[in-house]
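User: I'm writing a short methods note and want a consistent example. For Up-regulator of cell proliferation, I'll paste the sequence; you return only the structure tokens, no commentary, since I'll be parsing the reply automatically.
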Amino acid sequence: MNFRSKTPQSVPSGSVSECPEWSMDGQPPFKEGERGEESVFHTKGLSGVSADSTYKKEEGKRSYLKFQAPKHIEVMQTQKLINVCDKAEGNSFYRSTHCLNATISRGKERQNSAQSETVVPPPGKIEFQSVTTDSVILSWGVPKGLKGPKIFRVKWTKGEWIHGRELEGYSVVKDAHQFEINDLELGQRYIFSVATDNDGNLSEWVENFVFTAVPAPRLLTKTHSEASAVTLKWTKGENMEGIKHQFIIALKSQGKEPLAIQTKECFKTISNLEPGTEYTIEVSTMLIDRCSEPVSTMILTEACFRKVLSKMGLEDYYDDKLTLSTVLEINQSDTSESKLESPKSYPEAFLRKLMMLNANARSVKCVSKDVDTDKQNTINPLDLITALFLCSDGFLQQDLVVKMALCQFAVPLLMPNHDTREITMMLWAMREIVRTFSPSKLAFRNLSCEERLVHTDIPLLSFVRLGRTSLSKSQVLNKLLSNTKECYDIFYNRNMEGGDVPRKISEGLVEMTWYLPCGKKNTDKFTEPLAVANLRGDIRDFDKQFSFLCQTSAAVYIFCDESEIDYFKHLEGMVVEARLLLISSIQGKSFTLKTMAITPSLKTTTVSQRKNTESELVKALQESVAKMLGNCPVKVSLANLADTARRCDILVDEDIDECQGVRKNADNIIQHIADPSKFKEKQLPSQGHIWKELSLLETEYWRLRNAGNENIEDYRKSLKITEKDLKTHQQRLEIKAAMLIFFHGVASEVQRYYFLKWLEMDLDNLSRNELSDLKDKYKELREKCPEDTEKIAEIDQKISARSLRLEHFFRECGQLFQCANHLPEFSSQSKTLEQLPELCAQMLLDGFPLELVDGDVANIPLKWITEVLRELHKSMHSKSKLKVITIIGAENSGKSTLLNTMFGVRFAVSKGTCTRGAFIHLINVNEHVRRKLECDCIMIIDTEGLKPHQIVQDDHSHERDIEVASLAVALSDATIVSVSSDNSKEKDLLEMVLHAFTRLKNVGKKPLCHFVHTNMSESPDVERKKRGKELVKQLNEVIRKDTRMRKANITKCSDVMEFDRDTFSWYMPPVWNGTPPMAPFSVDYSETAHALKKRLIGDLKKCQGRGDLMQFISDVDRFWKGL
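Assistant:
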């Protein structure tokens, strides 16, 4: 090929290389070339020359020519002209024109005329801002030296450059340097030319070409995968219907030759793959000789991961996730004893114990007499936990994490998935962890703080290992973090049941825990809170996790052998924000603590003497950590670490659209709450003073407390008139902005749960800030000055007024629904309100509690509750036979905690607060035991605490407590009575309980009853039976002295309740096994609660069938009016 120039002596020699326009993966090395009648070499300083791309056509295949500049070159002249043409081959070449210091001329004649005319400067280089299948946006540089308004001429043509070819389009552009051209054909080559127009004089045309895009395939998905084959499907690119094309599939795997497959179909099964191998699959559209951008997916053929899931019986839940409602089902393990016979029973055994907060949940093992079989059945508990998290939905994951934290188990921070090779930060899963602790600034005042840990700024310390060590890193951490005289198995380790079994799918897991001080010097190891992360596996195999920890931690402690230290030379230049410390050993026999720097070069400094035992090492680490905390290390919150995770190519669990899409709705409500009491008054008015007055009127209608000497019928008529006026006023209240946002948030079935969880957590955070001091005062007064009833009542009212929780929004839903009948039948508001009961019923099925009795007014919105339960009945396909378990008893006696422990539910428990009114939870009964229990579901009712006489605010509130308790008992098949360990109040409480049961005689109810004494120390069976007999005597003595009970012909407690004299009295141990917040939940408490649960289920078997939810609705109406 010849290059001819008018000044050949000044053109440097060079070589030409050829690049194919598209490769097998469909990616052109570059898409743009430039054209002009002349092409110019121009200088780049003194060291190199560049030439513009040249295009040729050869045997139906396009190529680009690139010029290689010689190493040495003389300074060029200011203007070089090269005319490139190859007439012998009949090929056209495309070049671009660049001006340096002068305008290029088109020939000798033009060169002469240019001397007498003003040369018009051409536009700068054409660039393409956007190229789609049918449009191009091109821009060009400002002409040099041209002042004032500018006019440009733009023309374009399709295909090859042929002299005289008809143009596709022509346009004049004024005072702009960008132009959009539409209605182009896809996959075609277009040449664009731009010239400056200065009063009719045109500059040289600057040209460039580009190919319009070929539409890529869409929706590439894997429809089937197995060990050696995968089936893919996709849809055609946009606007490709009717255009002849095919697809190229590129199959790539590390260390293997790429495989290319062509097909005309939109699906393909690829066989002969290797098991356990990761493949990248790219699919491109091919139109004649042009390829689209590829769409790609990554697959991992099945291997170890799927086998492990299958071994545990979880393979079906990997794609169709486990849910909380499934896990909480009443099944055969609740009705009979069951043994672990195979690994398939491990997940259920672990989940059952964890839901009941049993700190022994991780110790699961099959019962087998065959040693070989026993070994085959053993699974490392970390593999079990990893498998369960990967097979659970986001809401079950949250519940698992909360309960693991209460048991003082480390929780997953970075979760590896060996199926997809992805790592996920479990931020959403950890958002519900709330703990109470006392840092040094509060401890000296004997105060504590309650915080949601993902938002708490505290130092993060990470512990990792290089290679294998004889020392158990996790066991060292357990000893480091356990308080004096207490050692808890926070991190599972090789010395625990199944801990020595090789891990298969949990390698690369990063677990996390927290050290939280209680504020007592003789108990706390550290006076400040800190977070601790632990990487499972060798850092050489998990560089992403190690990099993340080095960027987020205040310090990273690395366990390694002295012989391995040279490995860290490979880390020079790595981004490290943390202080690095080595715990080096010599063949595992002694240990030395060293600091390490890797920039500018590797350097270690010994900071402790050699330690010969594990105890000595733990003490050295304790001193190191305490010193670091004293030096004010960098503090981080988990919520703020998400950005670092993303930069490390780590996924974040809450980044999915369903989760983030509704967060704005929750934020829009929260940002308008400056004062909770004023917010309720303005945005939730339907549940305000009008609803309270209506409730008082309803009570007065039946009680006639204020009738005096007035005729009863006339008095009740006047009450009805007043009631009608109040309801009319209530109906005129508009639906406020906050409720409209709420309706929008719960409307989507996919996003409803996320919205409710965001709102619930945000309201909780808000209330915590608002009420923290009030709750502390309330708790202190109740403990130290119980006789100061007025002050206690005053603080209680303030807490109630300033509280704002999820139930307030559902209360507003209930009141709006009850007023909906005044709206036009087909109005949008009417339609929205009609859907509320169905949405609320689904919420109940999703695991949220439903308020049965409004605690602020001690009333039931009957119309609302009726419709919600009716919709629940429909949702259960009319299979809603139920039995009911209720708990009543002393205020602050742990009723909600007991129900949550027994059934895994989530009744609200919080520092310094009590349940108000009554709430219900619904638990499904597994189909295999429905016949035994004669029901489809079990309803759990949690009630407001009964207050002894000396702290009730007035007679009405005293009666209200008994009414709520009486209703709950009337609705129940089995009742738990919770009795506080405070003997001074027990007599008053028993009297209130008996009054609640006495009222039921009129409605013909006599439920089974169990008395639970909380916070009791362990005692032998003989002592328990003795206490049970004493309790019966106490109850009978109360009846004997009560005039109203004697008038009702009640002479003994068995007249109003059924119970087994030997087993009706239960003694619950303290909730915590040690000093919170570092103490785990008590195993004894959990196991006692489990025994009580099984007994209650046994009681329900004996109870006569009571009907379904429709019957329950009728009972609520009948009993409430009767009471």
